[in-house]
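Example complex used in Figure S2.
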Amino acid sequence: MAMQTNVSDHPISTNGTYAIEARNLRVYYGNFLAVKDVNLHIPQQKITALIGPSGCGKSTMLRAFNRMNELVPTARTEGEILYHAVNIYDPDIDAVEVRRRIGMVFQKPNPFPKSIYENVAWGARINGYKGNMDELVFESLRQAALWDEVKDKLTQSGLSLSGGQQQRLCIARAIAIKPDIILMDEPASALDPIATLRIEELMQELAQKYTIIVVTHNMQQAARVSDYTAFFSLDEQDRSGVLVEYGPTKKLFTNPEKSITEDYVTGRFG
Amino acid sequence: MKANKDAIHLDTSGFTPNLPRRHRVGKLWLVIFRFATVVGLIALATLLLNVMNSAFGYVAVENKVDPDTLAVNGVELDDLPKAELVRILQENVSAGLFRRLENDEPFAERSRLDVYNLVLERVVEPRVVQQWSLQDSLFRRAQIEAEVAANYPKAELEFKSWLDKYFILNPQSARAERAGVRTAILGSLWTVGIAIVFAFPIGVGGAIYLEEYAADNAINRVIRTNINNLAGVPSIIYGILGLAIFVRALEPLTSGTLLGLADPTTANGRTILSAGLTLGLLILPMIIINAQEAIRAVPSSLRQASYGLGATRWQTVWHHVLPNAMPGVLTGAIFAISRAMGETAPLVVIGASTFINVDPNGPFAKFTTLPIQIYQWTSRPQDVFRNIAAAAIVVLVLLLLSLNASAVILRNRFSRRLD
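Predicted assembly (689 residues):
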């Protein structure tokens, strides 16, 4: 908790309860409050889904976990995100180090216009990986369930793959830097149903090793893959995003506490 | 369509499709666009024909000595080795002149081209008494022959390409028959080379700063707008700027005296370096604007992917933004090279030499460039200079094409690497 404490000084605790925790989080875009007073603790090695109607701030919330909002010039964050008892918004903390620990997979597959091998190796290399690069790349591709499809064409461009393969390449790229948490922003929304299924299976395999936070528009997907679900909605007065309900997925989908949650998960609005 | 209309009930109330009229309007615009293209093509063709018309054609030449009589064993004067040329010179000029030439520079050290030029200058002494355009040469041949026979009985009629080997290799000369563009080509390459070496890194660096680092505030917006305006400033203004800064204020540096490298014949700031830096300033806004646009066109998803992997801003710029922007940046550089190559006005202000027949030997030498040479030749009263000006235009265009081609090859290599 000390000001000088660096994220990397903390070992990844395996028996702790929470991987990451938001406290009174507020994110502004200029004067607009996009996410209001969110308190949320994400359990380790589980899949947590963030769901809610469009514009409710769930993607903003996701990006707050690895300080990606800072790339938007007008964005401003208040409150705390505690990662192993360290506030990642502490002025002493380097956003680059945060993002290396908390990886990200984006909505649209965005492999680099480089070879498949280089796509996976690049992140590790710029982060100063000194081990056997071939092994790391092969292992990451295996973990991302892509190895069998690309093992004979590692020198081909990452862009030559199909959409679903590209997204798994992006996942391989994210796990090659050995993160602790993987953030996924609607990772399957640009993919066909079969590719979507593969990504979902992959998420469940990865959850044995990583903490996964996933934003999804697809409620069936949230119900299928996640252990916990956070439902966000819009505040009636100022149109900012608020956390309405958070709990185990099964409970949220079958026996929600708030009627607005029930309306949403049963498809009556949103 | 009629049958379908009956089968499918379409609600067309409130719509007046007016399809024939919409198609007519489209066709009208197509005609206008085609016309515009044709106008452009005609302008280009006229330019090329005009240049070609002067660069080639019949000439009536009066030689003091017929070069055919100088041929040795059937080998023409053009193809004779240096030793034979020296012998011809010795046999045909006075002993005094030969000694003087030997004293100026020993024949052993002179190049073959130099000796060949001396033979032409001192022995053959060809003089073009009249020249005809390519058009006349092609269609009025009989008339031209009659004219030559009547007016210049001693002259020989020959078809001359003003653009030949000797035109490229010879330095400037007061006589159009022997004038060439070697000094001008070298001067152009030097100045454009310095301009691009100076402006490319600074321009791309500025573009990276403005696009990737600078905040979107009022000051930076003013800077961006002003760079756009700078690209439209008349080039003569850059010439005045270059005269004030590089030629005058920085004279010790641009003349080379500071480094002890000053050319003894110049010893002022009107050097290749000053010209190159001035052209560099001139093309800097072009390079910045094109690089900015290329950088802006790099998808932000790539930047996000890079940052998401824990890359720093610089790593993101160096590994992803720049390589992906490079084809666009190089396109800008191609435009910039063309622009710098064709500039005349600022170099006139800087003080390009209009008559110079020694090769530039470094950045601190006096210089002339192809456009300057063309400008100077076209303003001469003698008609013959119009012909060599046309030939110089062809050289300039070819030089531009080859420089652009190499830049295009470089750009394509970058694009291919990204696929």
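Chain B touches chain A at residues 215-216, 299, 301-312, 315, 319-320, 324, 418-419 (CB under 8 Å). Chain B has a mean pLDDT of 87.
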